[in-house]
Amino acid sequence: MGKIDAMDMKILDELIKDSSLSIPKLSDKIDANPSVVYSRIKRLIKRGIIKTFTIIVNEEILGYGVIAVIGAEIDARQRGNIIDELLTIKEVRNVSEVTGRFDLLIKIQTRSMDELYTIISDNIGKISGILHTETFIEMNRRVKEPIYSFQR
Predict the structure, then answer these.
(1) Which one of 21, 77, 112, 137 has the largest count of C-beta atoms within 10 Å of its C-beta?
(2) How far apart are CA 44 and CA 111, in angstroms?
(3) What is the secondary structure of 55-103 as a DSSP string?
(4) CB neighbour list of residue 102: distance below 8 Å, 6 or more residues apart
(5) What is the pTM of this model?
(6) Please, are residues 106 and 83 in contact by the beta-carbon 8 Å criterion?
(7) DSSP 8-state assignment for residue 32
(8) Which residues fall within 8 angstroms of residue 126, CB to CB, at 6 or more apart?
(9) How far lies 26's CA from each of 42, 82, 148, in Å?
(10) Identical fold, 6-46 and 66-137
(11) SS3 of 49, please?
């Protein structure tokens, strides 16, 4: 279906920064014809390079200011059920299966330390098959948007 070229990379770079850009504004930013930009975006979607256009919600403004990552050791025989149950907890943002001393990393976002404690002790800690957890509270975060380089 064709290779990724410099124009595709410019489109991706701009959409990563702001996926709400209109085609005309995006075209101006990368100095390309709007119809070409539109067809390139459609092609990137069709090829699966662009999976979705979305928004990022500032959860801190909504009151979810406490972020924690919980490392969990689990009974591997119950992995699917554990993950399914974790994902029913509204404060759980994602669950990753990992290598290392933990089996799962669970990211949660809560309104307060008290709520964090309640979720860990009353929800996560009571899931059958979770053997041990260790909680890491986020003190500060720096986010870097991905930068992709054009490869020929």
Answers:
(1) 21
(2) 38
(3) ----TTTTT--EEEEEEEEE-GGGHHHHHHHHTTSTTEEEEEE-SSS-S
(4) 71, 72, 73, 134
(5) 0.80
(6) no
(7) -
(8) none
(9) 14, 43, 18
(10) no
(11) coil
Q: Report domain extents, the chain.
A: 6-46, 66-137
Closest CA to 106 of 117, 128, 126, 91: 91
DSSP state of 45: H
CATH 2.40.50 fits domain 6-46: no
Per-residue pLDDT tens digits for 58-79 = 999 999 999 999 999 999 999 9
Q: Kindly state the DSSP code that residue 125 receives in the 8-state scheme.
A: G
CATH number of the 66-137 domain: 3.30.70.920
To which residue do tokens 């986010």 refer? 143
Tokens read off for 148: 């992709």
Please, what's the b/e burial string for 60-89 (b: 16 or more CB within 10 A of its CB; e: otherwise)? eeeebebbbbbbbebeeeeeeebbebbeee
pLDDT at 25 over 60: yes
Digit-coded pLDDT (tens) for 29-55: 999 999 999 999 999 999 999 999 988
